[in-house]
Fold this sequence. Notes:
The chain is an alpha+beta fold. It is built from 13 helices and 25 strands. Residues 19-152, 165-290 form the C2 domain.
Amino acid sequence: MGTCFSDIKGGKQAVGGKSNEATGTGATTNNNGGQNDAVDFFYKTQGFQQLFTQVESDPMVVVYAKKRDGKLEELGRTEVILNCLNPEWIEKISVAFHFEIVQPLEFHVYDIDTKYHSVPTKTLKLGDQEFLGMTSCTLSEIVTKPSRSLSLRLQNKSGHGVLRNLGAITIHAEETVASKSAVEMVLSCSHLDNKDVFSKSDPFLRISRMIESGGYIPICKTEVINDNLNPKWKPVCLSGHKFGSKDSPLVIECFDFNSSGDHVLIGKVQKSVADLEKLYGERTGVNLIIPSTRHRQEKVLKGQLFVDQYCEKEQFSFIDYISSGFELNFMVAVDFTASNGNPQHSDSLHYIDAYGRLNSYQQAIMEVGEVIQFYDSDRQFPAWGFGGKIPGGTVSHCFNLCGNPGASEVAGVEGIMDAYASALCRVTLSGPTLFGPVINMAAQIASHALTSHCSTKYYVLLIITDGVVTDLQETINALVEASDLPLSILIVGVGSADFTSMEVLDADNGRRLESSTGRVATRDMVQFVPMREVQSGQISVVRALLEELPDQFLSFMRSRGINPLPSHFSKASTSTMQ
């Protein structure tokens, strides 16, 4: 490949480096060779056409994010590389990686007209440039590759390569250092207001980050400390992808824990990580505040928040594991209890709409499966049902959706959807609602992988149910037992049932699950969300369910001392056009 220089002003401006020295003299090569005037003249005098045409291209790439409504949002542009059919662009395009959503990307390649070479790329009108080709993929497809590189053929805008070769583009992803950084802190409070009558408050902290819409999403909770108005919590570790930049605003709320789930706010404060670092350095505290009902003002409290310890460190990220060969293996379990209603009736939660509108079960399977499938290489997913009467008249609390007693796996998300629809035709809805058997089945698979020294597999079980679990204590026992395994469990509640008692399964209340024998879960590995709350709000069921999954994955790997596999990453992104 020839040496190609760039950039936005006639190929003379430096890109990516800080040296003032010239990077080159604009030397270029052409893949079709140099044109020979004497040979050209000879062929013309003999009445022949030229054997080749001089081809030059000044390519630039525009990167877009494709939104759910199909609209494209421009993320950035590379520099222009002059007279080159095999360019390597230097300019990087920053894209925030969100595990919990599918992130479709499009790459459009343009040949920039010579008269625009002195115009900055950001102000170029793309309609004035020649379109060379495009391609698309998801960000997950790139980061799951061992080299974090993905090569794709260019196509025209209709999605075809026509009859001629439009070339190929290779996209390479590199994780920023900031996303691997983490902050570990020891937080404490003093002189908290007492919210209990017959004892002292049981305080815990919840830390949330601000999102684009102006609301806040919880990113961390401490443990609960009983009967203490001057608590000091165990260290909390916030990874960079959780809090964003050090200047991003965080809300730290102190609650008095109540077993009913109706926790009482003691006070709160808004500070960034940089602010918390400053508090540690100055060895000072900050007063908590609480909203006042009078004049819409905030009341400053006597209680204070302190940062007793603060340190920054780098650690292996979720992408480090995934790109080195680790996988997420998806499993699903569907509720076949009678409370769902007759599947033949349109008011049933299991009703299959003839016009293709998804019911709540189908929606949860599709949205979660579409995200996780990119992290499973063979896309063979175990799919079970529970609470249904299978052919033969037996009520089963863990049966294979596909109908084959000897095989639970189906091919892809569509395979799950097909198996679910077919099971509704042969399985009679029954009951009760028991989670224990499917959790134990998933735990058995995860345990087998662990004992087989297959430490690169992590399992994700999606349970979709319309009612409160009947075997609550047995379920808690199974979850505590499974907390030592490479397994996370996502629970979606569908329908209008009161799921309040189900929230105990999700350790977001500040306390880990405890079994009937007194054993405490080693980590939080359950996430529960009622579908109706998701549908009434702005956040999708996928985002609500999957946000904690990378951290649950990392907490398991770190607790076991499991590091990413050794790998060799390619150096730079390249593109070839012909």
